[in-house]
Amino acid sequence: MASSLLSWPHRPISLTFQPKNPSPATARVSVHDPPPQDPPPPPPDSNPKSRYLWVNPNSARAAGLAKARAASSRRARLAAAAAALAACEPEESPIAAALEAAFPTDNQQHQPPSEQDAVIVLNTAAPRAAEAIVLALRWFLRNAEVRNEVILYNVVLKALRKRRRWADAEALWEEMMREGVRPDNATFSTVISCARACGMPAKAVEWFEKMPEFGCSPDMLTYSAVIDAYGRAGDAESALRLYDRARAEKCPLDPVICATVIRIHATSGNFDGALNVFEEMKAAGVKPNLVVYNTVLDAMGRAMRPWVVKTIHRELITQGVKPSKATYSCLLQAYTRARYGEDAMAVYRTIKDESIHIDVILYNMLLSMCADIGYVDEAEEIFRDMKASSTMDDASSKPDSWSYSSMVTLYSCTGDVVGAEGILNEMVEARFKPNIFILTSLIRCYGKAGRTDDVVRSFAMFEELGITPDDRFCGCLLTVAAGTPEKDLHKVIGCIERSNSQLGALVNLLIDPAAPSDRLGDAAAELLGAARGVVKMPYCNCLMDLAVNLGRMESACALLGVALRLGIYANVQTRTQTQWSLHLRGLSVGAALTTLHVWMADLDAAMRRGEELPPLLGIHTGQGKNMYTDRGLAAVFEAHLKELDAPFHEAPDKAGWFLTTSVAARHWLETKKSEELVAA
C-alpha cells in the first residue's frame, strides 16, 4: 500500500523531505510494504531554477497564497474582459456577449461583477468607438453589484473627455438626470475639463455655475479649469475674480492654477500681474514646476523684459528643473525679440548640443535678429544648420522665403553684394519667387555699393513679377537716392517716379535750385500729411539727407519746418533754467545737421534779443550705430563740430552727449558772426 504521507496536501520539492516528527500514520507503516517513491523529476523543459515548496494548508501563508492565486485569476479575467470590450463593435449585442462571457451570470458558482470590477474594465478598455464604453456602462449598471452609480458614470465621462466627445458627455449627463444619479464634485470637474478640452469655454463656465444647484463646491482643480475657460473665452475679469474668490476661500495654490492665471495676465497685457502671481506662489511655499516656469518665461518674453527672463532661467536651473524644448523656445523668442544676440546664440548652441529639433519659425526669428544686429558669421552658421537639419521626411526646418529674406537683408545691410546675390540665386533654385522685402533689401545693397545700374535692373523685376511697390520700398529708393552721385541721380529718380508720382515730383522740386522754398514746403506738407505714420519720419530723414548732400540747406530747413509743424519730430529742442538741449537721436545725418543749423540760428537770435543763455548747452546724439549711417551719429557729429570749431565736447559721464557752457557758446557765436561779416 502506498504511504499515507503521499495523501497529504503538499507541493513537491526538488530535495527529499523527511519530517522531523513522524505522524502516527507513518509509525504504522509495515516494513513489508514497498518503500515510498521519490517524487518524479521535473519535466526537461521546466525551469531548473524554480523551487517547489511544501506549504502547510493550516498556515497563514497558505491562506495568503490562495488569495494571491485568486487575485491573479481576477486580474487576468478583468484584463480579458477589457480586451474583449475593446474589440467589440459599438452595438449592444456583441458588448453584452463579451461581458457575459467574462462575468457569467447563469452559474451559481460565479459572483456577479463588483463595482471595482466595473471600474477597472471601464477604465482600462479602449474601444474603437466611444459608444461602446457607454453601452458597457449600461450593462454593468444592470448586472454588477454597484453601490455608488456616480463612480461608474465619472469613469465613462473621463473616457469621453479623453476622446473629446462633448455631445456624448452631455447625453450621458441627461441619462444621469433621468436615472436619478446625483453628480458629485468629480462629475463636474470632469465635465468642465471636457468642455475646455473640446474648445468650448462658454460651456465650461455654464457647468461651473450649475454646481451650487447640486450642492457641490469647487475644488482647486475645478477652479483652475474654469479660470482657464474664462481666459480662453476672453473674459479675463471673471477669471481673475474667480481666482480672488479661490484665494479668499483659502484654497491652496497649486502650479496648475498659477500657470493659468499667469497666462491670463500675459494675454491681457498685464505683465506686472503675471510676475506678481509668480512671486506670490513662491511666497506661499508652492514650488513652481516646469509648466509654470515656461509660462512666466513666455510672458516676460512678450513683455520685452529679457533681463527678467535671464533671472528666471537662472532660478529654474538652480532649482534643479530640467528645461524642455518649450523652455528653450521661450528663451529664444525672448532674446531674439529684444535683440540680445549673445544670449540668443548661447541658447541656440545649447539646443544644438542637446540635439533638440528647431522648426522654421524659431530659425527665422534667429536669422531676423542676426540681420538686424549684423551677426554675419552667426547667421551663416544658423542658415547652414537649418539646411542640414531639413530632410525629405521632416521639412519643418526647411528654409522658406522669410529665411532667404533675412539673409538678403543681412548682406544688404553690410554691403555684401556677392553674398546677397548668392542667396537670391539659391532662393530661385529652391523655387521661391523673390518678394518685395527681398527686392527692397537687394536694391538697398546695390545702392550702398554705388551700383546704380543694378538698382534700376532690380527695379525692373517688380514689373516682371507683378509686384506693386509700397511706401516702405519708396523709402528705400529715397535712401538710395540720398547716397547716389549727382550724375546718376536721375536714374534713381526715374524709379521713384514710377513707384510714386507724387513723391517723384517732390524729389524733382528738391533737386531744382530754382524751385522756391515755399512751393517745396507745400508739396512736402501735402505728401507727408497723407502718408502712413510709420513712413513719415523715414521720408523726412531721407529727403533732408538728399538736400544736405546736394548742398541745399535752405531746402532742408524748409523740410524740417514742415516736419515740426506736422509733429513728425517731437521734443527736438528742450529748455530748462539750467540747460538748453538739442535731441537728435533717431535722426539721419542730414536731418541732424539741418536741426543743428536751425538750433544755432535760434541761439544767435536769442542772443540778439538780449536773452540770457542757461549755464549749459547740450546736444544729445545717442550712442551706438545709426540705421542711416555705418558710423554712429555721435562719431559723425564729433567730426562736424570740430570742423565748425564749435566748443562742444563729449561729456565723460553722459554717453552720447556733447556739452558746452553758455560763456563758450556766446564767444563762439560772436566770433562766427564777425567772421561772416568780414567775409561779406
TrEMBL record:
Keywords: Repeat, Transit peptide. Residues 15-24 have a biased composition (Polar residues). One of its GO terms (biological process) is positive regulation of translation. Pfam families: PPR_1, PPR_2, PPR_long. SMART domains: SMR. Signal peptide: none annotated. Belongs to the PPR family. P subfamily. This is Smr domain-containing protein. It comes from Leersia perrieri.
